[in-house]
Amino acid sequence: MFKQLASAIALGVTALGSSLALGADDARSPIHISANIPTQQFHVQPRDPEFGKNEVMHYDPIKDNLGYLRQTFDVKNTEGSIHAYIEGGRAMLTSANNVIFLNVKFNNVRLDGIPREVVDDLSSTPGTQVEMRIRADSMPVDRSPGFYTGDFTVIYDAVPRISA
């Protein structure tokens, strides 16, 4: 009986020891998944889902200017046109007390703080692709070297068509 008990204890320790050893070498891989399925009636989405997260405007010392950014957007409003504006009115890059104003165009319409039609009813109803371009308005003559950053938000409005 003692031999059977000792064998059972030894077997249990062996099983427990191997599971502890396996636990010490485990690896984890957290996975975060998201999906954005736009409505069939209205959406404005960049083709590159990473656009706007970490963009860089490279400086060209020969031409003394900043490169530009461009991105294609899928747009649709089955109920009318699409208007857009920049929340706060201006897009800019800043460094300490220095400012470089940005020219933001969506479908060749310059954006500022006033809502403007950027995609007409005829184009937006079936859906289309348009381009956003962001460039420096002009390089300030008295600018200082430094690390410039900027954040701005573009608001897109679904404007219903007016029935006659």
Structure in a nutshell:
This protein is of the alpha+beta class.
What is the strand and helix layout of this fold?
Elements: H1 2-24, E1 42-46, E2 59-60, E3 65-66, E4 69-77, E5 80-86, E6 92-95, E7 98-106, E8 109-110, E9 116-119, H2 121-124, E10 128-136, E11 154-160
Antiparallel strand pairs: 1-4, 2-3, 4-10, 5-9, 5-11, 6-7, 7-8, 7-10
**Strands, count:** 11
SSE topology string? HEEEEEEEEEHEE
Q: If you compute it from the alpha carbons, what radius of gyration comes out, rounded to the nearest whole angstrom?
A: 28 Å
Please mark out the parts with pLDDT under 50 across 5 or more consecutive residues, or reply none. Answer: none
Q: Judging by the overall fold, what is the CATH architecture?
A: Sandwich
Shape: flat
Tally of discrete structural domains: 1
What is the distance, rounded to the nearest whole angstrom, between the alpha carbons of the first and last residues? 98 Å
This entry's quaternary arrangement is single chain
CATH C-level class is: Mainly Beta
Task: Describe what you observe in this structure.
This protein is an alpha+beta fold and 164 residues long. The chain has helices at 2-24, 121-124; strands spanning 42-46, 59-60, 65-66, 69-77, 80-86, 92-95, 98-106, 109-110, 116-119, 128-136, 154-160. It is 16% helix and 37% strand. The strands form three sheets. Strands 1, 4, 6, 7, 8 and 10 form a six-stranded antiparallel sheet that branches. A three-stranded antiparallel sheet has the order 9-5-11. Strands 2-3 form a two-stranded antiparallel ribbon. The protein starts with a helix and ends with a strand.
